[in-house]
Amino acid sequence: MHVVRFLLRPSIIPAWSTVLLVLLMIGFPAEALAASIRGLSIWWEVLFPALFPFFVISELLLGLGIVHFFGKILDPFMRPLFRIPGIGGFVVTMGYASGYPVGSRLTAQLWEQKLISRAEGERLVAFTTTSDPIFLIGAVSVGFFHNAALAPVLAAAHYGGGLIIGLLMRFHDRHEAPSEQRARKEPSKPTGRRKSRLAEAIHAMHTARLMDGRAFGVLLQDAVQAALRLMIVVGGLVVVFSVIMELLRQAGGIEVLAQGVRAILSLIHVPSALSDAVVNGIFEVTLGARSAGGATGSGLIHQAAIAAFVLSWGGLSVHAQIASLLSHTDLRYKPFFLARLLHGCIATGLIYLFWDWLGPVS
């Protein structure tokens, strides 16, 4: 009995899981190789060209002080709504425009520079991890569903759900002390006019640039190197999860999971044919969205609802990328996990709520 308890300890389970994966790779070597090649193809043809420029640009914007400029400008809006400093507004903009995991990368950088506290960082990561508009419109709506008119309702559910998560996360760790940026108070001058917010923002940008001190050539080189290191980690995780999914499929694990998903879908009156989309989406967002688009005959509204869930959940592949980025900080993974799950449920509900208003005309 003691041996069983020892083998089921949380610290031991990852070791046994790894051993199981090794055995499955020995049993299905050809399938594992093909899955690795598929994952590498997705990384090289889709993720690398889509994410690498944004990673480089974000590094440059931080080094040039432009992030600090936006921080001063947006501070009056971000603090009352989301309880994060104005500098987080830049992360929100870049995260929603660039897609996962750019928001988490920027949040980790702000934490490393002591511009945000742990609670503020966890709030930021929770609602800035979203799909980029190009993927949502071009790949999902047009590519997978072959219906561009689906984009408005998908976007409203996905990004609207993200903003709702942001508003809910303002109650996360409400008693934690604010960031140093918020706590710091500049001495008030007894005479003279108060600086305009624009002047304060320009001053903050100039000060940040002086503190960085790197020449632009050195800054660009460091930005490229940092972006390449991050892209290698992202690519490795995509390949690993591609192999894991294929091995589980060969071993029958995917089908067992699909049966459980079918039971849940039947309870909420969603066609069971969409179970494959949910299962694929649990692991990888692209495969899940593609499966949702291909489940014709299940009803377009239900297909869109499952696609919204998959996009908002993000897939365990994205979760692994975020966990890797957060591992160098004191930001916790659990709030992010719960926020992704809640975001998926909210986005699914918003599809049904918005469908008559924004959905495609039959």
**DSSP, total strands:** 0
**Could you give a short account of the major beta sheet?**
none
> Uncertain segments of ≥5 residues (pLDDT<50)?
181-192
Distance between the termini: 61 Å
Which percent range fits the helix content? over 70%
Query: What number is the mean pLDDT?
Result: 85
- Strand-residue fraction? under 5%
What are the secondary-structure elements, in order, as H or E?
HHHHHHHHHHHHHHHHHH
What is the radius of gyration computed over CA atoms, rounded to a whole number of angstroms? 22 Å
From the helix content, strand content and strand pairing, which structural class follows?
mainly alpha
What shape does the CA trace take? Answer: globular
The count of helical stretches stands at 18
Compute the number of structural domains.
1
Question: Could you please describe the fold and organization of this structure?
Answer:
This protein is mainly α and 362 residues long. It has one domain (27-174, 197-358). The protein is built from 18 helices and no strands. It has helices at 2-7, 13-27, 29-64, 66-82, 87-98, 102-112, 118-128, 133-144, 151-169, 180-183, 197-212, 216-251, 253-267, 275-283, 285-294, 300-313, 315-326, 333-358. The protein is globular. The protein starts with a helix and ends with a helix. Mean pLDDT is 85; it is low at 181-192.
